[in-house]
Amino acid sequence: MGSTASGMNGTWRNWGGNVSARPARQVAPASVEELAAAVRRAREDGLKVKAVGTGHSFTSIAATDGVLIRPQLLTGIRTIDRASMTVTVEAGTPLKRLNAALAREGLSLTNMGDIMEQTVSGATSTGTHGTGRTSASIAAQIKGLELVTADGSLLTCSEKENPQVFAAARIGLGALGIVTAITFAVEPLFLLTAREEPMPFERVLAEFDQLWAENEHFEFYWFPHTGSTNTKRNNRSAGPAQPVGQVAGWFEDEFLSNGVFQVAQWIGRAAPATVPAIARISSRALSARTYTDIPYKVFTSPRRVRFVEMEYAVPRAALVATLRELKAMVDRSGLRIGFPVEVRTAPADDIALSTASGRDSAYIAVHMFRGTPYQAYFTAAERIFTAHEGRPHWGKVHTRDAEYFARVYPRFGEFTALRDRLDPDRLFQNDYLRRVLGA
């Protein structure tokens, strides 16, 4: 996956290519002190401040015409505390570097999302998650963090130190300050056995509760215009490790899932009528396989085909009904959808703006190939998701506003009150935060 791009004219673009901005200046601080100084200078100059990681959000959450903070020099592990089983890492560290470094130390995060290109601060601030029966999002694994607030001071937070800020800032949307370091809970490195296999759509829905209950991590992809899915079950294993072979891994994960899929998307974009046939072929292309490896090599996979995405969290009990409505909408709409729909789950957590805050959740993600019109599909899907009190991923396309969020997040007012206290002058404001959090 690529990262953010910044042209010679100072234009910043996100990975999906659907958001761009022209900041007045871009700053890449080499230390927390330099970052704090950049915040104070921006305040003196009357400029807003936003931080951006690798640009994998499809919303304009990081866009600004003020000062854009680029944390690529704030990277690396600060400390590993084996007594408390925590790791403290600089905010700009990519997840792939953290995962590899932890593995070398015989350690691992408990759960993670399916890509690892993001920075740790970008991933947690937007609520990035994987799938899990009892293990929650990356942010739910945070044990402490530090951030530079609007007056340029450094605030350290944990359950014991500034607990109110800690409770909210784990998924802070960049609205409370600029995160400079995060402390995660870790555990001894373990093995996961992944079982991937095709399964009919109707069978997955009929057996979903059982599949969820019997597996530590269950997810599936449904191919629109077909009755087919590809399922994945990840469970802890005593070993031995049996990784995917190098040739087989290249063929399925690179050649089929990226190379051939890329070509298929080009064909579908140029000739939409071919999409249903391509979907049927794609749904049959991947065969069943089982392998055992360390967590980040099982949870994550390369995503080189660029797309635009919308994802909503609905109550887990509403998943089957929501998916049936989504399939019925696609079948009758005349839309041509070339990307599979991704379905995952997460247990309830206690983070104010987590999409799983206070309720067991299921995630439904819809995608369209970059450069393909997506508005009609996303609008119709969003209408279904919101009818089930869905909560959109903060970093993925949606049209919801503060009035809606105040209804679907019981602790929304708690977050906005804290924002009023930490950033009363809205130094970290942008158009996106104005829409989703209010003025």
Q: Can you give a write-up of this model?
A:
The chain has 439 residues and is of the alpha+beta class. Helix content is 33%, strand content 24%. It has 14 helices and 21 strands. Strands 17-14-16-15-19-20-18-21 form an 8-stranded antiparallel beta sheet, sandwiched between helices. It has a 5-stranded antiparallel beta sheet with strand order 7-8-12-10-11. Strands 1-2-3 form a 3-stranded antiparallel beta sheet, with no helix packed on it. Strand 10 (142-148) and strand 11 form a beta hairpin. Helix 7 runs antiparallel to helix 8 (275-285) and helix 10 (319-333) runs antiparallel to helix 11. The two termini are 34 Å apart.
Principal-axes shape call: globular
Q: End-to-end span in angstroms? A: 34 Å
In the predicted model, the low-confidence regions spanning at least 5 consecutive residues are: 1-9
Which percent bin holds the helix content?
25-40%
| Strand order, largest beta sheet | 17-14-16-15-19-20-18-21
**What's the story with the biggest beta sheet?**
8 strands, antiparallel
